[in-house]
Design brief:
The structure is a single chain. The protein is α/β, with parallel strands linked by helices and 332 residues long. It has 11 helices and 13 strands. The strands form 4 sheets. The chain has a 7-stranded parallel beta sheet, with helices on both faces. A two-stranded parallel sheet has the order 7-10. Strands 8-13 form a two-stranded parallel sheet. Helix 1 packs across helix 7 and helix 4 packs parallel to helix 5. The longest helix is centred in the first third of the chain and has 22 residues. The chain is globular, with a radius of gyration of 19 Å. The C terminus is likely disordered. The structure holds uridine-5'-diphosphate. Uridine-5'-diphosphate binds next to helix 6 and strand 8.
Length: 332
């Protein structure tokens, strides 16, 4: 088993991946600057407080802990914020990853699993989308992830790196044992926002109800964070077994509308979700649906926990602990 540097390991998906890595027998070194991650989400292994743009600190971490593989989760992820503040998105997502790549090249670490996103595709030409669907991002978040994806083949050819990219659809849910969950400040994601509305926060804004979808609200492919974590462990194993760089969609192939998600939140919580209709959010595609046959066929991955009820139930169990309110990290 290996020593894995998990950059952004204190964040939502990164922390769940750390659990899965440790359960698979790997040693985990979490590297995070806690700008959006939480110390409470680091449940074991080594913890280094550092910024991904600090290449020297990364090199030190790679050397000191004899790291052989890297998982890179550290990124800014809000579509809306990326539209108003692209500088922050290019700096964190492009510059940050270039800094990590430089450190890896200098130290001689050749394998990385990279967090990418369905936002690289933009408006679907067909649905569900395969990995070779054209990439035309609708926002700076998707553009920043695509820009760095496009740098990878050059680094691979020149420096012998192998980097596999996971394009996530809508990461959601929480660790089934309740150890971890989602906590963003401010929270932008649909399911936790719906919980906040149930718990007396502001009503949930439905961003657009005039899309050309069956009920007029956007369609999304929700994948359980535990399934995403499992996908990372499988992709890592493939690379360690000598597999080539690749790109994998990670989703379920089933789409739910914003209204259907709200109905599920009402069923699980037993309470009405107060809603208001708001204008469309800039940069939102009407539908995002994954064809994830590649990861299923090649790596035996299945979206085992990704039915909507299990996603909402696990997220609700965790949300009710109040952990997300008290945790440290970015406050806005
Ligand atoms: N959404 C919404 N109200 C909210 C948050 C999200 O209507 O308060 C919608 C959003 O427009 C999108 C879907 O829910 O169609 C999923 O958004 P989220 O931010 O959870 O994930 P994204 O698809 O941006 O990755």
């Amino acid at each position: 088993m290996s020593n894995v540097l998990v950059v952004g390991g204190a964040g939502y998906i990164g922390s769940h991946a750390c659990l899965a890595l440790r359960e698979a027998g790997h040693e985990v070194v979490v590297y995070d600057n806690f700008s959006t991650g939480h110390r409470e989400a680091v449940l074991g292994g080594v913890l280094i407080d550092g910024d991904v743009r600090d290449s020297e600190k990364l090199k030190e971490a790679l050397r000191n802990y004899r790291v052989s593989v890297v998982m890179h989760f550290a990124a800014l992820i809000s579509v809306e914020e990326s539209v108003s503040n692209p500088i922050a998105y290019y700096e964190a997502n492009v510059e940050g990853t270039l800094s990590l790549l430089s450190a890896m090249v200098d130290v001689g670490v050749e394998v990385m699993v990279f967090s990418s996103t369905a936002a690289v595709y933009g408006k679907p030409d067909y649905s569900p989308m395969l990995e070779d669907h054209p990439t035309r991002p609708l926002n700076a978040y998707g553009e920043s992830k695509l820009a760095i994806e496009r740098a990878f083949p050059h680094y691979e050819r020149a420096y012998g790196l192998r980097i596999s990219k996971l394009r996530y659809f809508n990461a959601s849910g929480a660790d089934p044992e309740g150890r971890l969950g989602e906590a963003h400040y401010p929270e932008t994601h649909l399911i936790p926002r719906a919980f906040n509305a149930v718990l007396g926060g502001p009503p949930l804004e439905i961003f657009g109800e005039n899309y050309s979808t069956p009920d007029g609200t956007c369609l999304r492919d929700f994948v359980h964070v535990t399934d995403l974590a499992d996908a990372h462990v499988r992709v890592l194993r493939r690379l360690q077994d000598g597999g080539d760089s690749d790109v994998y969609n990670v989703g379920t192939g089933s789409a739910y509308s914003v209204r259907e998600v709200i109905q599920m939140v009402e069923k699980v919580t037993g309470q009405e979700v107060p809603t208001i209709i708001s204008p469309r959010r800039i940069g939102d595609p009407s539908s995002l649906l994954a064809a994830s046959d590649r990861i299923q066929n090649e790596l035996g991955w299945t979206p085992a926990h990704s039915n909507l009820q299990e996603i909402v139930e696990s997220a609700w169990r965790w949300h009710q602990t109040g952990w997300h309110v008290g945790a440290t990290g970015d406050t806005g």
